[in-house]
Structures are given as C-alpha cells and as structure tokens.
Amino acid sequence: MPRLALTDRFVAGAKATNLPQVDYFDAGTPGLALRVSEGGKKAWTYLFTSPRGGKRARLTLGTYPAVSLARARTLALEAKGHVDDRCDPRDVFAAKDASALTVAMLCESYLEKHVRPNLRSAANFEQRLSKNVIPVIGSVRLADLHPRDINAVIDPIIKRKKPTEANRVFENMRAMIRWAVRRGDLDKSPMDAMTKPSAENGARERFLSDDEIRHLWAVLPHALAHSKDAQRIVRLCLVTGQRVGEVAGMTLDELDLEKQLWALPGSRTKNGSPHTVPLSDLAVGIIKDAIAAAGDEAIFVFPSGEKSIDPHGVATTLRRAHQATKEKPKGRFGMTPWTAHDLRRTVLTGLARLGVQPIVIGAVANHLSVTKASVTFAHYVKHTYEQEKRAALDLWAERLVAIIEGGGAKIVPMRTHKVAAP
Questions:
Q1: What is the pLDDT of residues 216-233, one digit of tens each?
Q2: Are 90 and 59 in contact (CB under 8 A)?
Q3: pLDDT of 347-362, one tens digit each?
Q4: How many CB atoms lie within 10 A of CB 47?
Q5: 23 in Cβ contact with 34 (< 8 Å)
Q6: Contacts of 327 (CB under 8 A, 6+ apart)
Q7: I want to staple 343 with a disulfide (CB 3.0 to 4.6 A). Which of 93, 103, 237, 278 is the partner?
Q8: In this structure, which CATH number among 1.10.443.10, 1.10.10.10, 1.20.120.530, 3.30.70.360 belongs to the domain 210-405?
Q9: CA 162 to CA 159: how far, in whole Å?
C-alpha cells in the first residue's frame, strides 16, 4: 500500500496500473487514502479501528474530483476526531442531514444504481457527467439546485460551439434529476420549465418522402451488405417508429410474438417509463428473421458477443454508408443523408398524414409530454391507448407495404370506429 505526500497534481493523474484497484495513502493524514480503480474511478476513503467492535473499518468520504484533496483531508481529520471520542465515524456521517446530498453524490448514485447496470451507453453517460457536470456544480447541495446551476453547465458547452454535446448533457442531467425525484431524493425537478439547447440551435426536420422510403428499403441489402443486423434494425425503426437504441437492445424476454407485442421496461426507455409497442405482421417477420439468425442461445435479438449490438455502432455504420466517394457522390444509399432518428420522425409524420390522433401518436412515441400533458391526463385518465396504438401501427405497416411495392396506394385516413368491449 503506497504511502505518499499526496498533491493535487498526483491525485489528478493517479492510475491503478495493471491492478483492479490501488490505495494511495496520504503520508500527512493518517488513515486517508485515495482508492483508484482500473477504470479510472477515484474515491477518498478513511481507514480506522472502529470503537464499536475494535475491528478495522473503511469510511468512504466522497469521489474525486467532486471532493478535493484539501476537503478529503478535512473530512479525514473530522472522522479521526469522532474515533478519538469513541464514536464510529460511519454512524456520525450517516446520521447527517439528508440535505447534505450533493450533485456529485447524486451523479455517483445514479451511475452505480441505474446507468451502469441498464444502459449500453453507460461509458458515454459517465464521461459527460465527469467532464461537464461534476467539476462545475458537483459541490452544490441537491436541495439548493437551481436552473442557474444547469445553465452554468450548459453555457460553456454552447460557447465551445458544441450544440450536440450540450443537448446530450442536458438530457442526461434531466434524466438523472427525474430519477432523483422518483426516489424521493428531491421534491421537484428544477429543470421542469427548461428547454433543451437545441431549441436555440434549430432541431432537425428531416423525414423521408414516399419515394425515399421505397428507394431506401430496396437499397439496404447493398448499402449495408456487411451487416444484416443493421439492415433489420433500420427496417424495424421504419416500421415501429421506436428509437434505434431501443430497437438495437431488444431482448427475447421483451417479446410476445404470439400476441405480437413488444414490452420495454422503464430501464430501457429514454423517459424511464415502461412502454408497449404493438407489432404489425411486417415487424414480426423482421424480428423472426433476426431471432433465427441470432441462434437458440441468444438473449438479445441483435446480439454482439454477450451483449446487444451497440446503437452507436449502428449510427457509425450509417454515417459511413452516407460518405460520398468519387464513384458514389451520394454515398452507398444514393440519397440525401438521414439518421436513424429521422426514420422515427418519418413514422410519426406518416401517422399524422393517415389521420391518427395526436394523443395516439404521442402514445406510440412514448412521449409523456403529449399523453400526460395536463393534470387531467396525468392524474385522471389511466387509459393506455393499446388498441389505438395497434390500429395506428397496423395502418402504417399497410401504408409502408404499399409504398415499398409500388407507391400507388392512396393514403386512407384512420376512421373512428367502435371497439367491442373485452
């Protein structure tokens, strides 16, 4: 166990070389150690002999850089004082007012309990919080968190002319704070009235025309010849209107192909709300092909090793296919570039053209801002629009087949009809 005169410079660059973790003990503060994991995570700990039972114990004081070296030394001395008074510092620190919870502590709790176990993009999520959030507002008490603190994080990113990164950080913070509200760590989100930076920088409006849909469906086997999974994921995005990350991470446990239903848990949706997607015959056919290709032992519909295929990898595959060459100036797709999210926009726009009611479109998209937009719908209307979603997605699938097979079919708006009571 190395014992060093720790400095800010050393702490910032400390690594656990070729070891799962290493403790660097501070020569000037007995018991204080910087624990560094192989993945680069750094936490301050205090080792002591517990007055409670006479055994050696460890108290976590916080993570770096949210807790600086100077602050860690102060906390270690405070803990030592409790030991000298024959009190276990773990009991004293645990008994502190819950209002002492800071943004940095929330970040670590959220990453540990929600992001790392559930999200494929955990590394990107963690990097954004560590780079943009913790150094700026990590020491802010959660009870004191204010919209101006959010702006203190976002404004420098905008100033660096990184609007996409600003949007991602904003979305990550909003998801984290909503999680804290659901857990009871926070009474209300200070971000409720705030809008994404994208509102200031212009949101994408791209969606595919009928001719583009027909062309894309036909050219997929050639444009993405080396990835049949990517072909199927693109087609499912265009059939179901769901996010590429949700489609790429689809598991067999989420599917009931007999009932033609896909049930996403809250841990796999952007807003944390469980979501059911009725599957048309067209969608079921694509999924069955993918399952057959995945093999009998597969857990994921689109496996990649022991995990599901990475949606960021799908996005990279699409970007490469869009790259212009001398032989193919419009890329391998031979059309104006589009993203997976543009396919989602295409589906929702198509549903609107077919006469589907806005609240049903919102239900298909799992947009709570539509389905729970008022007190009435948020607290009194408990209808889940399952039948309406199925009718809408079946209608879209019929329209999609007509487009793919020739494009001559007319748009027949959805008509209101009575549904037999169950």
A1: 999 999 999 999 999 999
A2: yes
A3: 999 999 999 999 999 9
A4: 17
A5: yes
A6: none
A7: 237
A8: 1.10.443.10
A9: 8
Give the three-state DSSP class for 102. Answer: strand
Q: What are phi and psi of 72, to 5 degrees?
A: -65, -40
Task: Please report, for residues 101, 228, 313, the alpha-carbon distance to residue 282 in angstroms, rounded to integers and kept in the order given.
Answer: 49, 17, 25
Torsion of CA 241, 246, 251, 255, to 10 degrees: -30
Of 74, 78, 62, 70, the residue nearest 8 (C-alpha): 70
Torsions phi, psi for 80 (to 5 deg): -60, -40
- Rg of the chain, C-alpha, whole Å: 26
Residues 66, 139 contacting (CB under 8 angstroms): yes
For the record, the structure tokens of 305 come out as 């090793």
Contact 67, 11 (CB under 8 A): no
Give the E-state strand segments of 158-256 in sequence order.
Answer: 255-256
SS3 307: strand
CATH (one of 3.40.190.10, 3.30.70.270, 3.40.190.150, 1.10.150.130) for 118-201: 1.10.150.130
pLDDT digits (tens, 9 = 90+) for 359-411: 999 999 999 878 776 666 676 777 888 999 999 999 999 999 999 998 544 44
Say which residue the tokens 């704070």 belong to: 177
The two structure tokens encoding residue 74? 């102060």
Helix (H) or strand (E) holding 270: none
